[in-house]
Amino acid sequence: MYGQPDNKLDLKINAMEELLLKLYEKNIKVSIDNNYKLNLKINGNDNDNINDIIEEVKINKQSLIDYISSLNTKKSDTSNSYDILEDTLLQVKLQETYEATPQQKSEFLRRFFTIKYAFNIVFTVELPGSDNEIIRKVIDKLIERHEILRTTFLIKDKEIRQKVHPKISDDFEIAYINLTQVDNKDEILSEEFQDLKANVFDFENGPIIAVKIIEYDADNKGIIFAMHHLISDLVSADIIKKEISLLYNYFIKKDQQELPELKFQSKEYASWVYNYIKSSSGKNKINRYREKILNSLKEDSIIGDNYQDSYITKLEKELNIALGKKDRKDLPDFFGDIYNIYPDPGAFYQNFIEEERIKKLNKLANTYQSSIFNMLIAIFAITFYRKNKNKSVRIATLHSGRLLQEFENIIGWFASEIILCLSVKEDFSIREFLENISDTFLETSQYSFYPYEKIMHDLDLNLDTLAPIFINYQVQNERYNMEIAPLHRSSGFGYFVFGCDFIQYDNCIKMMINYNIKHFSGIEVQQLVEDCNVLIDQLFAKPEILINELFVEQSKNLL
């Protein structure tokens, strides 16, 4: 599950919709001109009964202008997006190879430079009492339905392209593992799962998926499904789980309706992305995105004439190491498609937000009409602001990337990092800051088609400066049954300065933190997590507290 904006903005939108309805009922037309001036045209004769609503319009004038403006923009953007989608469908005819998405290009290059590279999504689907032959039919049908499951990737004419095959590679076989007569079932099952997590797929020849049928005992049977992130994301995994169950029932019962045909596939999405980037609507959004990021950087006086943090210089050094004197004339232009071929050294820290604090977070989320995810972003943003005193905190987080409804049921890597530029103002209440986060998330989600590697290339900035913090949030609707205790490892991933994956279980929130040891020590990371827990307690004690008061209270606690 990817983090979504909370419902505070929904309430604001509902209020504007209700106000527009009242105006309509009073026969009052409302519009905004090119200078964003609000115009009211009163068509009725009953002017005595409109004083209250006119007063309400005055109070909500700016919100009403913003709402009507966003509707006009959304209408224009959506119309343009769908026009481009229809044009894309006409353009993408039967070809030998097709465009690859920015995410696919980045992942292909990472595999190109790092031969033994596994970044796999692995999950299980339970099919109690199932028949092996029917399971095979289900997988065959799934592969037939989704082209990306029988797609390979290659470099052609200095471009990374995808090739859709009429059938999956001959090397694809569904393994069968019978554990019914085995004592150490769980141990073997865990090993099989980890083997698939570490499996190195062949991008050029395929297959890029693997399936194992597991017969656990007489009553429990299912499959382990693995695919490289190159062709999938977590939403894709959910689609596959759902469709496997539906297809199995279809083959068993025969009376259920088969899954509807897909009008679009992953290759159409890739083509739409590149057409949209080149469109006037896409260019306008990219310019707005870059401007927001530049304003955030300027707010902290980070960039200037003598700034040395160059993405191009760093990547060129990495390419010289990776390729040596190899001729690059037939290779793609790597700039804007990859970063951190050789990530900085990192370490790993795991800790938990325990059940009592989760109850506090839930109550706070209800009080603020927010979400747990936005609460966590706010808490970490404030903690990092307190540490570094940057006026603007830039946090990368995942967005599903499925910007149009037509992409909802397609398998592929759509998810993309977006960069939230958050101004932390000390006179803000937490409620105001959460509103700012919600608005920022909603706006920035429009830019998910444009990956941060391209922003880095456009601005010639490294990720350490552009978005030093990464936060991701998932929900597992089950209890965490392992030991809830801190864990520190000296080996980790230093891709981001500070990257935290929150996984919410029924009884805790697990924090899996990879951090760059050039920027943080283990003690500093541990202190940051403790500070976040203290902030939760302070907010629960005084929900309407201002940000600057939080710092005073926290200093007292530290003393």
Structure description:
This protein has 559 residues and is of the alpha+beta class. The chain has three domains: 66 residues, no CATH class; 167 residues, Chloramphenicol Acetyltransferase (2-Layer Sandwich), CATH 3.30.559.10; 215 residues, Nonribosomal peptide synthetase, condensation domain (Chloramphenicol Acetyltransferase, 2-Layer Sandwich), CATH 3.30.559.30. The strands form four sheets. Strands 12-11-13-15-16-10-14 form a seven-stranded mixed β-sheet, sandwiched between helices. The protein has a four-stranded mixed β-sheet with strand order 4-9-8-7, with helices on both faces. Strands 3-6-5 form a three-stranded antiparallel β-sheet. It is 45% helix and 19% strand. The relative contact order is 0.12. One of its GO terms (molecular function) is phosphopantetheine binding. Pfam families: Condensation. InterPro entries: CAT-like_dom_sf, Condensation_dom. It comes from Chryseobacterium taeanense.
